[in-house]
């Protein structure tokens, strides 16, 4: 349990569950989750713990659909949990966790 500070207030973080381009999917002590920018994560140990075990986007996203690129690589349209749909984006398969890809393909 480590503090996190958006708006100058301190909130208790249980752990970081996911990351994407300077944003972290935070599990709060009360059990809720939200995406927070890096500047709000005050304890570098939380980031180190996540980096040690992170295998790609997984817990903070929902897969909407896949597509093949011209180079025949797969990308996934993902929705970031708790964020507006306008932030949905295409993510290359190499940035997705293998577990999430298997779960999506098995349907």
Describe this protein's structure.
The protein has about 110 residues and is α+β, with helices and mostly antiparallel strands. The chain contains two helices and seven strands. The protein has helices at about 45-55, 100-105, and strands spanning about 1-5, 10-20, 25-30, 35, 60-70, 75-80, 90. Strand 1 and strand 2 (about 10-20) form a beta hairpin. The radius of gyration is 15 Å and the shape is elongated.
Tell me roughly what share of residues is in helical segments.
10-25%
Q: What is Rg?
A: 15 Å
Strand order of the biggest β-sheet: 1-2-3-4
Give the N-to-C terminal Cα separation. 35 Å
Count of DSSP E strands? Answer: 7
Biggest sheet descriptor: 4 strands, antiparallel
Return the average pLDDT rounded to an integer. 91
Decide which structural class fits the backbone: alpha+beta
As an assembly, this protein is single chain
Query: What portion of the residues fall into strands of 2 or more residues?
Result: 35-45%
Per DSSP, the total helix count is 2
InterPro entries: Chromo-like_dom_sf
Protein name: Chromo domain-containing protein
Subunit structure: Component of the NuA4 histone acetyltransferase complex.
């Amino acid at each position: 349990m480590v503090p996190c500070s958006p708006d100058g207030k301190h909130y208790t973080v249980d752990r970081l569950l996911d990351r994407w381009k300077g944003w972290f999917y935070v599990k709060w002590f009360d059990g809720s989750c939200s995406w927070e920018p890096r500047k709000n994560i005050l304890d570098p140990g939380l980031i180190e713990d996540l980096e040690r075990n992170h295998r790609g986007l997984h817990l903070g996203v929902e897969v909407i659909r896949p597509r093949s690129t011209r180079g025949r690589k797969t990308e996934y349209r993902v929705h970031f949990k708790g964020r507006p749909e306008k932030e949905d984006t295409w993510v290359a398969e190499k940035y997705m966790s293998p577990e999430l890809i298997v779960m999506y393909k098995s349907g």
